[in-house]
Each structure stands twice: as C-alpha cells, then as structure tokens.
Amino acid sequence: MKKKNFFFMMIFLVFIIIEPVSYLAFKYRYNWPVIENYKARLESVENYSFNEKLEVIMPITGTTIVHATPEFVDRFKINDYKGLGIYDDGVDNDKELYALLIGDSFTRGIGSKDNLLYGWVEIVERKIKKMDLLNLGNSGAGQIHQINFYNKIKKHFKHQIVLMNFTLGSDFRDNVEKYFDSNDYFARLPDSIDKNKFVRNVQYARNYQISSHFLAFSPVRLYSVWFILKIYEELISKQPPFSNIDKDLQQYSKAASMFNEKEIPASVKLLRRKKTVTQESPDGKFVYNFDPRLYQTSMGQIAERIAKHSAGIINAFFEHLRREKKHFILILHPSREQIYLNNFSKDSYNFDYVRDKLKNYLSKNISLFDLTVPMRNAAKETNNPLYYRIDGHYTQEGYKIAANLICEFLLNDDFIKERIVVNN
What we know:
- The protein has helices at 2-29, 34-45, 105-108, 115-118, 120-127, 143-153, 170-177, 182-188, 195-207, 210-217, 223-235, 247-263, 266-269, 300-323, 336-340, 353-361, 372-380, 396-411, 414-419; strands at 48-51, 56-59, 64-68, 73-77, 79-81, 84-86, 97-103, 131-137, 161-167, 277-280, 287-290, 327-333, 367-370.
- The chain is an alpha/beta fold.
- The chain starts with a helix and ends in a 5-residue tail after the last helix.
C-alpha cells in the first residue's frame, strides 16, 4: 500500500513540476492567441467550395476567411458577384473602366489585416473613382496558375483591363516548380467523389496540428500533454497516429508530385530551387529567407535563365490578351530583401540582377510598373517598416505606399487616360 501511495505521489510531484514548465514553454513559443487563431483557420476550411461551372476553388459568399501568423491576423470578408465569392468589395455597375487583378497574396492583401480597408487594391479603387478594380488575388502560385485561373473565369466578369502582379522572388520560384494546378486536378476527379468535401479535407489536413488541436478542443488544457504532443509533432507527424486525416492530402500531394515530374521540361527542372538562405539583416530589423541563386553574382547564368522563363510565360499571355483586345498591365512587387538588403552584401549578392534580366526579356509593348526603386526610396524616408520582420508581406504602411505609387502609375497609363475623365 505504501509503495502504491509513493508511486502516485511521485506522479503528482512530476506533474506539478512538468505542467508549469510546459506552460512557460508554451507562452515562450507563442506570444499570440495561437489557439483562437487555430480554431478560426480550421473553421475557414469550410468556407471554400469548388465551382463546377467555372472549375475553380473559390471562397463562399458571406463567410470570413482567416489567415493567421505570429505577426498578424487577416480576416477576409467574402462578398458576392453573380454567385461567386470574391476577396473584393463587389462590382459597381456605374464605372467607366473595369480591371481584373490576378496575382498571389500580395494582391489579395495578406498582411493588411483588413484588405477592404488597407489592401492596396481597395485603396487605389477609392482614389480612382471611375475605375473598378476586381481583386482576384490568390488566383494561383505563379503566373502559370494565374493565367489558367483567368482563362477559366474571364467570361464571368466584365473587364477591359487585366492587371497582373508579379512578386519578385516567390513568382520566379513558383514558375519553375509548380506546373500542377489544383483547379484542374479537382475538375478531373470522378463524379463519385464529393469535390467540396475533398477540397476541405485537403485544406483541413494542411492546417491540422495535433498539439494545437489538443489545446483547442480538449475540455482540460494540460500543457504537459501539449508539450509531449509538440515533440511528437516535430519528430514524427502533425497528425495523430493511425488516423486518416491526411488521406486525401496524401493522394493530392502524390498526384501533384507525379504531374510535376512528368510535365515540367527537363531544362526547367534544372532551375528548381536547391536550398534557401535564412539570415538576419545587419541591423537586426528583419529575418530573410530567399533563394540565393536569384542574387548570387556567381550564379548569374542560372538567374538569367529563371528570369527568361518567367518572361516567356508573361509575354505569351500578353500576346494572347492583345488578340482578345484586352489591355495588359504588369506590376512588379519587390521582395523584402530587394528593398532592405540592397545596401548590404554587394560583393556576394546583386539584388537587382534577376529583376533587371526579367525586364530585359519582357516585351517592350507591355505597360510595366516596377515598384522596386520607388519603394526603396520610400523605405528611406520612413521609420515604419514596409514589410513584417519575419513574414515577407507588406505591412499596412507598405500597402499604403504601394497603393499611392500604383495609383499614380495607372492615372498616367495611356489606355486609362484615353477612356476616363479623372475627377477625383
């Protein structure tokens, strides 16, 4: 009996020691409302659906999509256009010009916290009152996906202008690594499969974390259990053992890998990323993560081929739009290292090289606006960071400056000037 009591006493003593230590470890690792945001992300999974008619995955009208990081939380209110959910305030029928905006998260407004108030698209639209900018950001990773997305939805929206946004950094990488298109994949699934359920299962598995799930949904929050699950998560898997949570995600990922291996040309496969560099800026303000081949002076030939590949995709799309009598505008959004690291490491890195090569290979007939130099100048004139320290997206200040610069450019675009009378 005494041995049994001693055993339980030892368990209790271990628990009262481990539990507060685990709690302190949790608080040290997460200084933001991680559990609440984890729940919101899982709930957002239910807010996507596959549109059978257009064959695209879109958010559901009237819902809110949550994107959470340790530095910011975005809440995207989804509005309706002809039954399609969009990251936009809606379409006004009394405008003189309509532009469809395609791009990635910089277009959607990740990091703005409220894209309808602080995203650059809505800021520009409020300034140019006779032009409606329809935000179709998050339309794909890289221009291959975005062009495919545009071709699927273009007849659904009235527009005279297509405004493509190219992120200098991630889009170079995406254009050589990601030929697989999820919209095409879901469209090809047999009718016996519930496509909406499949889409949500894939999203759910991507967001699922066993340690966060325990704290979010357990009736008792035991941080010692969280600590054990976190170790399991880091060393083994984010999913529970013997579960089928990631069954559809595994099928999806296998299909993506097989497609890319088969469809990406051998010459392009050579351009795929081998490694990334993570480094803190000399002033300690930012932590960078980038593909060194884009900027290393010793890797100039590789960077030039990567730039030429992306330029070829854009040029072909420009010619396609010209035949369809659509005006094409291309905006280049600089990556964080191109703004803040430009004054450092000049011996080993040239942060202008791949951008300059891209511009050299682009058609001279494209209406092009490169934000890099104006954003560098703006960064020197303010103490407010234009990007987050760890996440690579614009801050609200960055979006505001980008919006003002883009607005000025658009108001001086010949096609736009000829068709609207500016009276803002």
